[in-house]
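Bug report (template v2)

What were you trying to do?
Predict the complex of my protein with adenosine-5'-triphosphate.

What happened?
Run completed; filing so the output is reviewed.

Input:
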Amino acid sequence: MSQEDTETDFGSRGEDDPTNDDMLVETDISDSVGSSQSTTRRDTIVRAEDINVWYDNDQALNDITMEIPENSVTAMVGPSGCGKSTFLRCINRMNDLIDSARVEGTLSLRGKNVYDADVDPVALRRRVGMVFQKPNPFPKSIYDNVVYGLEIQDKGGDYDQIVEESLKRAALWDEVNGRLDESGLELSGGQQQRLCIARAIAPDPEVLLMDEPASALDPVATSQIEDLIEELAEDYTVIIVTHNMQQAARISDQTAVFLTGGELVEFDDTQKIFENPESQRVEDYITGKFG
Ligand SMILES: Nc1ncnc2c1ncn2[C@@H]1O[C@H](COP(=O)(O)OP(=O)(O)OP(=O)(O)O)[C@@H](O)[C@H]1O
């Protein structure tokens, strides 16, 4: 199964040329920051333009404009309630499921506005997978968890091969090979989260949204998930919300700092954000002076 299978849903791949030289990531990276950074220039895959979101009369996001390059890890950081999860849910239109939510602006996936009337949100979510904070495997076998997305999308293919491939990509195959018919709920928390990642990547999405995927896990499981995220960015565009500054510094190529009021204050290479941010408010937040 190739990503090209889904291409026709929203226009051709890579039609957006990068226009921002900031996407060129510098070499000479310090040990602690952005170990996944590279010198590759990447096309924009997700572009937000003047995104505003309200829940009833309360504004949660205020004029968010940003371009996210493909095959990289983008971290969203900021204090509680600043709109990080709301922004993540704009990308795959999960906010559609919240009655009080209203989204204005343009959110493009490879140049096609996902809020256009002709976009089917279910087809969109095939291309934009999501992993949540708390591991949430279904009360089904490990195998059935992985193929779940394929089945509800009526997607054909060699399921055995897809299960093996997805579990290998999620770094879980070696631990569950031979017991695929056991319940996903019998796995440890860290294994459950890797199972959820396998489930999210089985339909071969282009973008993987992760909302604090390691915050419910112990340090060993967290480290495994972090390693995995860096590997996944070779094939997918990963956009991750995290409260953990060290985690953002370790695994992301770009970091977006949201602050109170639903404002995107700074978005830049992770190294720049952590070592030399433009905004004093960002520096204060990063260094723990507030938030
Ligand atoms: N379903 C909802 N209904 C009403 N208001 C909501 C809803 N979801 C979020 N909000 C409000 O929108 C604002 C942004 O919330 P959001 O969850 O996006 O922030 P966040 O930065 O992800 O926070 P956290 O880090 O605590 O998860 C908050 O004021 C929150 O109370």
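What did the reviewer find?
Confidence is low (pLDDT under 50) at residues 1-32, 34-39. The pocket of adenosine-5'-triphosphate is lined by residues 55, 60, 78, 80-86, 98, 100 (CB under 6 Å).
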